[in-house]
Amino acid sequence: MSADFSRMAEILTMLDQSEADWIHWDVMDGHFVPNITFGMDFIRAMRPYTKKFFDVHLMIEQPGKYVEAFADAGADGITVHWEATAHLHRCIQKIKRKGVRAGVAINPATPVHILEDIINDIDLVLIMSVNPGFGGQEFILRSYKKIYEAKQMIERNGAKALIEVDGGVNDDNASKLLEMGADVLVAGSYIFKHKNPAEAVKILKRIT
Length: 208
Fold this sequence. Notes:
Blueprint: H1 8-17, E1 22-28, H2 40-46, E2 53-59, H3 67-73, E3 77-81, H4 88-97, E4 101-106, E5 124-128, H5 143-156, E6 162-166, H6 174-180, E7 184-186, H7 189-192, H8 197-207
Helix pairs in contact: 2-3
C-alpha cells in the first residue's frame, strides 16, 4: 500500500533482490476500511516478478467470497479479519483447502482472547497496531501488550501460529516487538519513505 503503484513491477524486482522475506499486500474494499487499493487481478499480474512469499491481507467485507480467487491469483498466505466475517472457521477452512497459509487479523479495539477458539486452526495471528485503512499512522502503544497476550495464548493452547504485527513498524520499535513475541514485522512507510528501501529492509533484518 505504501509503494508507488505506477512502479510496482520495478519495486517488486528490487524487493526480490532484497533481504525481505515476505511481500505484504493490503487489499482494501472501501467498505470494511475507508480506502480502496487493488484486487486479485493485480496480485496475479504481480506474481511473475518475484518468487517471494505473497502475504495477502484482506481488509474487506465477506472475505469468504474471495479467498479462493486470491489463492488462485498467487497468494501464499491469506489473512482475513475477525471483524469482517460471521463464519470465520468456514473461511479459514476454505483457505486451507487451497493449500495456502491461513491467518486472522484483529483491529486495535478487538481483544486477543476472541481468537482462543480458532487459534489451533490458523497459521498466523495479525495484530493491527494502527487502525487499518491508511499507511503512515502512529504505532498504538497498547499493541505491545496484545502481542504478549497472543504469545501466551498460543503457548497455552499448544498452537503453532506465528504473530505478525502491521502498522507503524520501524527501527525504533522492532526490537521490542520481537521481545514481546512477534515473529513477522510488516513495514510499509518505513521502507518506502527511506531514500534506499533495500537498505531500510537490511536495517530491520539486522534487528531481527
